[in-house]
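User: Just a sanity check before I run the rest of the batch. Below are the structure tokens for the first item. I only need the designed sequence back.
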């Protein structure tokens, strides 16, 4: 059995069947000399790129910002509230709820475990009509009572502007009553650290929190 190390040429007499002990993620590439070489795997989320300066003509690269990364998943099976662990700092966050329902009460969002009267939002209410709500203790996502197939999608910056002003959230939720946009009136420069999903009744469904950098 012939064993190769990353970058070591493979002799022309070696059969492909003899490469069954290659390390996970390693690939065989041509280097222009007639003798293929073994290229070690990259790190998580890297992509294979062409680079004529490399001996093999290939290299693993890390993409620039703009890629959403899953940070945490909250799975609800009757709980009335769940909070994420401390989130890694990112420029943007995305919160997605799938197959959500509540036994009673609105589904709501809080940031950094802030339960003060620091949330303003605009909603489509039961009339239906646009309504502005201010000084609330949470940001209403929508009414998810008595259904099991409603979803929501929220995007927000990772930090309140240092010069002051609210952190603005964009929300898209299923159902006749839901929030369109909202603000978190935190101190300028505050970084989003935790996400809480809460309701007045038992919640079922899955919420995923993603982060990305510009």
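Assistant: Here's the designed sequence for the first item:
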């Amino acid at each position: 059995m012939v064993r190769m190390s990353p970058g070591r040429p493979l002799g022309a007499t070696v059969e492909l069947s003899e490469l069954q002990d290659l390390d996970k993620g390693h690939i065989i590439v041509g280097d222009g000399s007639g003798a293929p070489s073994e290229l070690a795997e990259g790190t998580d989320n890297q992509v294979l790129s062409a680079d004529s300066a490399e001996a093999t003509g290939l290299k693993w690269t890390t993409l620039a910002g703009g890629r959403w990364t899953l940070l945490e998943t909250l799975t609800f099976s009757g709980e009335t509230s769940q909070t994420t662990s401390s989130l890694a700092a990112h420029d943007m966050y995305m919160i997605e709820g799938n197959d959500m329902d509540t036994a009673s009460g609105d589904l709501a969002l809080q940031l950094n475990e802030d339960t003060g009267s620091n949330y303003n939002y605009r909603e489509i209410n039961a009339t239906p009509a646009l309504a502005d709500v201010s000084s609330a203790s949470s940001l209403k996502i929508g009414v998810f009572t008595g259904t099991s197939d409603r979803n929501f999608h929220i995007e927000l910056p990772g930090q309140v502007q240092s010069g002051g002003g609210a952190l603005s959230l964009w929300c898209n939720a299923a159902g006749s009553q839901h929030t369109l946009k909202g603000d978190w009136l935190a101190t300028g420069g505050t970084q989003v650290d935790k996400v809480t999903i809460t309701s007045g009744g038992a919640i079922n469904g899955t919420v995923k929190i993603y982060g990305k950098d510009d």
